[in-house]
Amino acid sequence: MGCFPTPLHRLERLTKELGGAEIWIKRDDLSGLGFGGNKIRKLEFLMADAVSRGCDTVLTVGGAQSNHACQTAAAARLLGMKPVLVLGRPPREDELSTGNLLLEKIMGADVRFVDARSPDELQRNMEEIAEDLESSGGKPYTIPLGGSNGPGALGYVYAVEEIIKQGGDFDYIFSACGSGGTLAGLALGSRVFGTGFKAVGVNVAAIKTGLPERVSSIMREAAAILGHESSEEEGFVIYDDYIGEGYGIPTEEGLEAIRLLSRVEGVFLDPVYTSKAMSGLIDLVKKGAVPESSKVLFLHTGGSAALFAYADCF
Ligand SMILES: Cc1ncc(COP(=O)(O)O)c(C=O)c1O
Is the pTM for the entire model greater than 0.85? Predict the structure, then answer.
């Protein structure tokens, strides 16, 4: 479905600007389908499962400006299935026709806003809708928050193989961490393909508690699918210091990272995920917590379509 391999290149001017570790970028925002993003890799596996089961409708959950929901809708349309998006926060009036909601409207996705207070509640709402569809003769396929389960994480296990084939030998791979599947895949991929890099997740607080446990559990699920022996060593670290006021609320440092990347590299980050991940990377490089001698890969996981819903921040 997507366009792989995605580009991988050095960020010359950012590296110079920060004056520390050598920084590279993996452009998974250019993964091809819809406006691109990290979910396309996960959806390669999830949608294959939906197709093999003969499903006609794909349901998933997310926030009002969920990138994952939008990419799932694009994947469903590509494969001739109906997308149903169960979104957890009624948007502001002016948000309805911008960002990912605009793209979903153009794709004709069935968008349902529900008053859910937690990812578990959202999941229950989606399952109820799926049961209704099934009882009226449909064949629904449900995808959890962020596509973050064992099959979804395989997308990032194989992304590690792609990075190796592109000649990447990094000490760290930095990524925004929301529902955990991307980080789980990177950490497991590093183990499966025997790389020396550490997978670093910058928490954006899509999940309020227990994120490391969740990442470990997704890793175990994905490892079991691959028949890979589990290991006590986790191979990832999560930073909680760059969340700010909460999920979906931009931080000043994150907005500054968006401006900086656009001005020195012509690359647009997003206000919810990659800007916070980059603000973490910048801070850790400046503090020397990421050593000057190291080589770092920043995974651009996409999301910049949501920038338009945050125009007021600029
Ligand atoms: C742009 C972007 N980056 C990062 C993430 C986080 O990925 P994960 O949910 O696999 O942790 C998401 C999740 O929706 C996203 O949309």
Answer: yes
Domain positions in the chain = 8-37+148-313, 43-146
Q: Distance from the CA of 136 to the center of ligand 1, in angstroms?
A: 33
* CATH T-level topology, domain 8-37+148-313: Rossmann fold (3.40.50)
Instruction: Give the N- to C-terminal CA distance of the chain in Å, as an integer.
Output: 34
| Amino acid in the structure at residue 42 | K
| Single-letter amino acid, residue 277 | A
Point out the ligand 1 atom lying closest to the alpha carbon of residue 153: 10
Nearest to 68 by CA among 96, 98, 103, 95: 103
| Ligand 1 pocket, residues with Cβ under 6 angstroms | 37-38, 67-68, 146, 148, 176-183, 270, 273-274, 301-303
- Of 261, 303, 266, 302, the closest CA to residue 278 belongs to 261
The residues assigned a catalytic role are 66
Express each pLDDT in 265-284 by its tens digit: 999 999 999 999 999 999 99
Extended beta strands in the chain, E state:
8-10, 22-27, 57-62, 82-87, 110-113, 140-143, 172-177, 198-203, 236-239, 295-300
Q: Is 80 exceeded by the pLDDT of residue 230?
A: no
